[in-house]
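quick one, 436 residues, struct below
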Amino acid sequence: MEYLKQAPAPDESVDRSIRQTVDVMLTEIEKRREAAALEFAERLDGWTGDVVLSAEKRADLIAQVPGRLRRDIQFAHRQVSRFAEAQRDSLAEFEIETEPGVRLGQRVMPVQCAGCYVPGGRYAHIASAIMSIATAKVAGVPFVVACSPPYKGAIHPAIAYAMDLAGADVILEIGGVQGVAAMANGLFTGREADIIVGPGNAYVAEAKRVLFGRVGIDVFAGPTESAIIADESADPMTIAVDLTSQAEHGPNSPVWLFTTSRTVGEKVADLIPKVAADMPNEDVVMAAWRDYGDIVLCDDREEAVQISDRYAPEHVQVIAEDLQWWKANLRNYGSLFLGEGSTVTHGDKCSGTNHILPTKGAGRYSGGLSVHKFLKILTYQQLDAEANKTFSAVGSRISRAEGMDGHARACDWRLRKYFPDTQWDFEVTDQKRYET
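---
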């Protein structure tokens, strides 16, 4: 491999500063609850209004959304819901009898309350409302709280419409760390979220990371990442357009090209500044490209797979021949886009797969947000008395091999109770002597 362009190493001191700020905010909000959250909302967003969006204001915001945009949001909602429904149906409850008298089973149970964060700072993330809320509702979550930072006196009307269409039970006009903390602590609603999902800036991502364990989260999220794998058949202009389209997420959003063609790589490097110069947010795009963009020249497609899997990008787009080979061999990514006709924008907005995806290498061990994130797989078992002849004997012996005598005695009790006349070829504690 050879770097035709390599980004400089990131400044880790920025992450430490964010971590310290978030720790202070979360501690203060947990201690003083709504009062602290309101103070942060005023200080950071200039917001002094009601946090819970009223039914009247919700209706007023929805009325501001133009008809064409409503229909587009409805279209995206249908696609996301249909894919989520298929994901839900791929899980099933079952019960099997593994041995006579032993019934084991699985139940699929939604969490009871989900918190969905929808960004609304630089951009109005309409699609994020659908991706998180609609997926939770398809999973069967009975109570969904959604929050988004206020925008010019209210959350963005189109976000409010998408939240409403997707089924949000309560909408909070609050964002940032204070919004995440509000959902985790049940502020303004009295319902603590079991899981918090949704993209956000570095402070939102850090708040979710700190809260993980106390609540569930979707993914450990960082800035949006996009990679393109290309061979000599790829169109350099298509690559340049698609990489710059993703770089507009923010000045710290990595965009990468892994290619087996030096000609394609060099042409893309030449085109990206020209494509960016024609965009209204050239400064953002070029900052991302300058500081986080890589072009890696690979010896062959096998090395391209190795490099891509090492990066484990949030999005991987393949513009190359033999797409099925790439589909079969790539392993680490958030979502895969096969062929020139499949741009990441489709997945971000309306194709149906979820756009809340793992970043910073988390694609090595985790997928993105799905119906399954809102569902718990609960197991159960029922053993009759006769089955205890085998299972309690085995359980007793393994427990003593582990040095856990109390565990063994729970099995011994059943052996003595159900089979009082049986002689065992191992020591079985007789606890009847304790009875009076």
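Residues 223-367 form a domain with the Rossmann fold fold (CATH 3.40.50.1980).
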